[in-house]
């Protein structure tokens, strides 16, 4: 029953970011990646002793974050629910021995083994996920990380209008989530919440980047 309802949520919310947005999202976003990395992401990552040996780029899209992470990581496992995006990345990274590409069902990471990864990274994806999906993934992030491993999760901090509002009516399609709710979910999943940094995305404090650590 729960399984069916999660599948329905994924169908309705998660399959909007494939070939149909190749130009309007993926190509356009790739052009801003270096700027996002330099201004928002790397300054936060640098504050923590992150081990980049075995990295997950979660909800990877066309791989613009992997392109940045490749400068630091020994191996990268790219994960996404969208088959078109996975195929795009299989083609793009065919010559990269250090990159693997894995599909997921949209609410668990059952293809990934436990205690395997040193760093779990996700940018510009979880911001759109419904709270049920975020909550479902957090114990999975915890499961796949090694003890002491960090996670970097860029998520929404937008709650105006309430939980049942169509997220596509929200600024930048942010789904319902707050820094506090995310921290509660993460603690419930067994994480220590190390740092939360609110981010302006045209709207003041629209997003949050949370750094988690598996004890
Ligand atoms: C806005 S794109 C961002 C892609 C990439 N992170 C980037 O910055 O370019 C959102 C990505 O999340 C993926 N996605 C959406 N819902 C998902 C889910 N429930 N589980 C895993 N991936 C999901 C989409 O397929 C898409 O690749």
From TrEMBL:
- Annotated GO MF terms: methyltransferase activity
Output the Gene3D superfamilies linked to this UniProt entry. Vaccinia Virus protein VP39
Give the Methyltransferase domain ranges: 55-149
Q: Which domain of life is it from?
A: Bacteria
Designated name of the protein: Methyltransferase domain-containing protein
User: What is the source species?
Assistant: Roseibium aquae
């Amino acid at each position: 029953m729960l399984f069916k309802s999660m599948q329905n949520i994924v169908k309705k919310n998660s399959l909007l970011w494939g070939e149909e947005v190749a130009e309007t999202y993926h190509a356009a976003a790739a052009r801003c990646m270096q700027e996002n990395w330099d201004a928002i992401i790397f300054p936060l990552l640098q504050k923590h002793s992150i081990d980049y040996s075995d990295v997950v780029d979660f909800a990877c899209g066309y791989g613009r974050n992997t392109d940045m992470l490749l400068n630091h990581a020994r191996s990268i496992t790219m994960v996404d629910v969208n088959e078109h995006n996975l195929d795009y990345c299989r083609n793009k990274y065919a010559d990269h021995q250090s990159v693997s590409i894995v599909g997921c069902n949209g609410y668990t990471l059952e293809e990934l083994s436990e205690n395997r990864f040193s760093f779990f990274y996700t940018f510009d994806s979880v911001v759109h996920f419904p709270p049920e999906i975020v909550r479902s993934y957090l114990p999975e992030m915890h499961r796949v990380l090694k003890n002491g491993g960090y996670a970097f999760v860029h998520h929404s901090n937008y709650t105006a209008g309430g939980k049942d509002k169509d997220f596509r009516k929200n600024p930048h399609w942010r789904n319902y989530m707050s820094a506090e709710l995310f921290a509660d979910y993460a603690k419930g999943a067994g994480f220590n919440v190390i740092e939360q940094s609110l981010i302006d995305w045209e709207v003041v404090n629209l997003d949050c980047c949370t750094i988690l650590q598996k004890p």
